[in-house]
Amino acid sequence: METTTALLGTTFVGGLVGVFAGRVPHGKYGINSRALTVGLMALLLSSRPLHLAGHASVWGLGLGLFSYTLACRSTLAAALTLWALPCFGFFLQSHSVLPVATELLGKPSRQTGQVHGSWDVPVRQSGIHRPDVLLITVDTLRADAALSMPSPGDWLVFDQAVSPAPWTSPSFYSLFTGLPVVAHGGGLPLGDQEYSKPLEGLPWLTEVIVGAGYETAAWTCNPHLVADAGFSRGFKHFVHSDSFFEPHLFHHSIQEWRHRFTGRVQRLRHERDQLLVEGARRWLSSPATKPRFTWVHLLAPHEYQRDLAVDMDGWKPGMEDLELLWRAYALNVAATEDRIRWLLEVVDFSDTVVVFTSDHGEAFGETGYRGHGKGRTDAELLVPLAMAGPGVEPGRVGGQVAVRDLAATILELLHIPRAMPGQNLMENERDAVAVGGLRWDPETFALRRAGGEYARTAPPAATGAPMVFSDDTLRNLGQLGYVESP
Hints:
The chain is α/β, with parallel strands linked by helices and about 475 residues long. It folds into two domains: about 1-95, no CATH class; about 100-480, Alkaline Phosphatase, subunit A (3-Layer(aba) Sandwich), CATH 3.40.720.10. Helices cover about 35% and strands about 15% of the residues. An eight-stranded mixed sheet has the order 6-5-7-1-8-11-2-12, sandwiched between helices. Strands 13-14-15 form a three-stranded antiparallel sheet, with no helix packed on it. A two-stranded antiparallel sheet has the order 3-4. A hairpin with a 5-residue loop joins β9 (about 365) and β10. α1 (about 1-20) runs parallel beside α3 (about 55-70). The model is unreliable at about 1-10, about 45-60 and about 85-125 (pLDDT under 50).
């Protein structure tokens, strides 16, 4: 429906342009003023600032321009107009013009969520100073593929951190609510490509932090982590890579169609992590009047089968050779490490709590399959976890901890009265960690014992309401193989 509306609307706009152009008289010296007017107005209308109807609108605009330029009896002008628009887009890119994404400047995006916390709480209460927080999460990062964080002696590293779930949605719902999946009921399959939201009325980490006077910003990717799914809650600035757009609509659409026909990843998808880190660096380097909570999520390790950070002999999209895929995975992990190091260059560790972890791991044949979201295995559930900054004593913790306890731990480090479930994972190990929420199985839940055994438990008594995704989000999920594209 959205695409149809965009096509009809912008075809009408193209018609208006053509009618206007038809009223412009021909110029002297053989210059077709009508064609020139059509071309200039087309460039204006197809620029990103006036793009309101979705990227499918470019085809409607092109159809309208083409039809009405022909009506003006200028076939050559029609052909030149359609040829010039994509060329102009390539010209912009070739001259290093960044995508027109105002989010990269630290401004609110169109997915900015409502902030339910109070912005009137003083930053300092009873002489307590609250540091900034930088939460860095990396999609699909196994514990044994963990990044070697800069200056290892400055970090508190957890050797046995257990993710709440083996895939993204339920895992992040647990991180932001402090609850196991069985308690929040979010990210569970409901059938017909639908998944559940968490139950209503649960606390949310960023909303609690906002209530303590923090300014919040997220620089994230993965189509599951969108505002539609509730992940913009509490963020004043919510930047998602799926909203990035090429500076020219025809160029953007050419990239989309090239992906459909050849499988080659679009430029903005290939460079999404770099663009996110660039934006986060600008944000972290800019002046602030309040302490900040910043979340940065990167996706490259997840994309080792579709998009390599650097070229590798023998690799091709969609291949299933486990040895080559493991090497591809390692390359994308290494590229992610470089980007994180670059991001941390602008961080003041003396006044910033930095947390680094992942949503889940990845199986590479240890239990007979490759991927994630499929089982209760250490390959999918053990993830890296490290912390640094004020209140964090460097060292190593060998015992089992739950990643979902990060919410309670962060609040304690910020001296915010406990408003979240969980415990301080720097002081308390867990004999058993609740896990569950498989991508296609809403009934499989378990406790992971400290020795590594999994004991099955009962499924949740209730789940949240179904998520309602936009057509654009469904399309982006389809490109990553999660659902069938609309």
